[in-house]
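ARCHIVE RECORD
Type: protein–small molecule complex
Small molecule: guanosine-5'-diphosphate
Source of inputs: curated submission
Record status: active
Notes field left blank by submitter.
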Amino acid sequence: MPTVAVDRVRNMGIIAHIDAGKTTTTERFLYYAGKSHRIGEVHEGQAVMDFRPDERERGITISDAATTFYWNGHEINLIDTPGHVDFTAEVERALRVLDGAVVVFDAAEGVEPQSETVWHQADRYRVPRIAFVNKMDRVGADFDAAVESMRERLRATPLPIQLPWGQAESFAGIVDLVQWRLLTFDPASLGREILVHPVPAELEREARRRRELLIERLAELHDPLAERYVEEAPIGAGQIHEALRAVTLGHRGVPVLCGAALRNIGVQPLLDAVCAYLPSPREMPPVSGEDPRTGERVTRRPDPEAPFAALVFKIVATASADLFYLRVYSGRRRAGDRVHNARTGRDERLHRPLRMHADRGEPVETIEAGDIVAVTGLRAVTGDTLCDKDAPVLLEPIRFPDAVVSVAVEPRTVAERERMGEIFARLEREDPTLRVATDPETGQTILSGMGELHLEVTLQRAEREFGLKVRAGQPRVSYRETIGAPASGTAEYRRQIAGEWVAARAQVELEPLADRGARAVAVSALPADALPADLVDSVLETLRSAAEGGGVFGYPMTGVRIVLREASFEPCSQPEAALNAAASLAFREALRGCDALVLEPYGRLEVRVPEEFLGAVVKSLNQRRALVEETRFARGSVVVRGVAPIAEMFGYLTALRSQTQGRGGFSLEPLDYRPLPETLVAQQHVRLLD
Ligand code: GDP
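STRUCTURE (tokenized, with ligand):
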């Protein structure tokens, strides 16, 4: 049970482009909330939240650990989210379980591509947001430009509720447009002491104009305020707060604050805004799922008296045990109580639930709707639902994108092979975007994941946390294949099995789908009474898995619709086996000589370099088959956007660094699958069927 009333709980995350200042802001949160006694700078490798060695070294946050702290009588459960797009799935997972988010922007950069991606993910999960324009002390910091970029690039409705006092070197405080005051933060107390002043005379006109603008915008978005506005009734801080809260919860606008976390300016007002404008778990809409017994849709209200429902959203393998992070959506349980795993159908006991702080776990007696806790000893995987046995529910599973990059790994010594298997199995359990498989031909272990960096980080973890050193091969992308034109095939299957003749016939047609990356589908075009329904289902499943098993080049097929045109069998004891065999043969017949296309994964690319390097960078992008779509100049640097084949971008960071004297940066985010040029198909890929 939360230690405060549930309407004072905030389950929130900080989402941001890498380097925008998420870690620094989090550190300040914990420091001002009294959770850490000193401020650990990221560059000193002391961040409290980033507790894995690999994270400290890189200065980025990879896993989403949850931590609880208290602010102004509120309990804040902060779910950490990664900033790097190679970890998109981690962001998705965090968005599923949080109720609101603070989005951190860099005041000199405005909206960056990864913030765009995460913003749209958050739109999809309808997560209410507050924006924090950080690094106001940086040279080039521009609050208004950052706000404008939110409007332009995110199509958001930003509602600035502060005005910076000074900018860049002169940034010294914050004008609070709602409470009409200036706040400064005493450096001697590391910003802990907040000094309240009147709005400075030189800013008064501008601040008044902006306050008016804020009220006008809010009146357009919130009826009660509109009424007062029309009646020209006085509008005070209370009414503005109320309108901001309603508008934020209703996804109609985003309050925007500013500050410089590193300089300890503006952090506490951000925490106040989290409490004031983001929702409590009680204010969330009911979650929906399926009754596993009937398949019916059911919902669960965020009410401790409702039947229990919780989602296992994260598993962390620690040296002593696996920690299962739960988000409780409804109901209540005591430590030691039983819960039902709706996927496995097994009962589990909730041993020692823990509220997690950055450095330790604190045992709790009761868990209930709205809580985020960790437990040990479950037999569960990420995405499982724990519920009441008598009122079972399967919450929507968390979607994880397919792995697009893989690498072969070998242990240094034969003796280590077994241990390597165990360690990777453990990492796979923890990270649902990681796949571990054995190549049937070479016997090598193959790791697959979201990108080069994802696999690199995984191997470093294996080495640091488990002392496992492996030899890794070159990264490779996972290919797919599809067809460029319709094809059809007919086949007959006839065989004597145990003295009985079984025979069946099938005809299938393959059609390309507009979305080449879509999963293969199989449909029946048979007359309604041609075959019993369960036989049709069995044949369609056979066809779908045949496509996924591999096409002409042996790669999983996507973007194809398989139509079962004809299917018949001669009466026998095993019609299902005969029909499935005939359908598989007809499918292979259709593939023979069809227009097969090898597909390779593409990513959305953004490269940022100083202007003088533009020519060289574009040239090398062209050599890597990247398509440049847009070139934008901004304050001496240039941003090149486009798409690129992921296979060509391996090692690009090193190349870019040497081309730009270390001053270039880039991001690459998996996007879709596109046909590989024919010359490359001929050089690198073999048709297995002809
Ligand atoms: P994250 O990648 O989003 O977690 O970002 P970090 O918190 O690690 O910050 C990235 C870099 O920006 C670090 O070198 C920080 O010291 C620096 N930084 C963070 N906040 C500020 C700020 O308010 N002003 C300035 N000038 N630098 C900042």
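CURATOR ANNOTATION: DSSP finds 16 helices and 38 strands in the chain.
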